[in-house]
């Protein structure tokens, strides 16, 4: 029996010497980055509205893209982010847009007594976000607080205007009165996946050719909602 015990003891010892116990080792990437895909949903508002212009219903924005992270300090918790994205936005409101047979565009405010079920314009943008990023991340911590602020440049890919009412239904695409370049400042802050997001446009949605009662339509886009980041 003793020989059997000695044999088992030395067998186990030899096995442990050849195959050490598995250690819980975490590989630390000292040059980590927060390269991230993002997706967001916003409620879209109109700022600098003409008098009597109001919004109705729910105006939504959907945002997708990727941001390249470039740390600028030793701890890598401060960085610059540059990305590429896509944004689809709708605005439900009472500014009626019509186009005659010669292509001239006119604008008017719908009154409360006007009978209509839908009046909106929408846009599709190719976007270039540039962010200054601060976060509490570390090489081994993937859940962290973040504050990202920056600038977003958008190029208008397409626009659509829809009106459903009595006695007419109108739909236009590619109206020239929309500004091709749209840009503004952004702010995103939160923890881990869930983050509050805001965008404030610095230029109007419409060009100077868009006139209402002899005045330019200088309203801009304001977007507030949630942004989600995935490594």
TrEMBL record:
One Pfam assignment: OMP_b-brl_2
Superkingdom of origin: Bacteria
Location of the Outer membrane protein beta-barrel domain: 34-206
Protein name: Porin family protein
